[in-house]
Request: fold
Amino acid sequence: MNIITSLNKAFDSRVRLGIMSMLMVNESVDFATIKKELDLTDGNLSTHLLALEKEKYIGVKKQFINKKPNTSYTVTKSGEKAFKAHITALEEIIKKSFE
Reply:
């Protein structure tokens, strides 16, 4: 089996890789924080979040904080499992390239 096929296409984008990395180490992260940390436009970030949400890799929570809308994101169990498998595949590719 070709190790490249173990990579998950949902995480091919550097933006989605960044989003998932942030969510894996934080309980939740809000839209504004992700936008700022990854230096993205609203539209670009929304597109990538929607793609991850469609795969059921992230959960979305909409609420109001001090009468202002706030949208935050969390990684789902299936997202965590898929992302860990993707990272493992990347590590295997790197390891094999040094053999």
Residues 11-93 form a domain with the Arc Repressor Mutant, subunit A fold (CATH 1.10.10.10). The longest helix spans residues 77-97. The chain is about 55% helix and 20% strand.
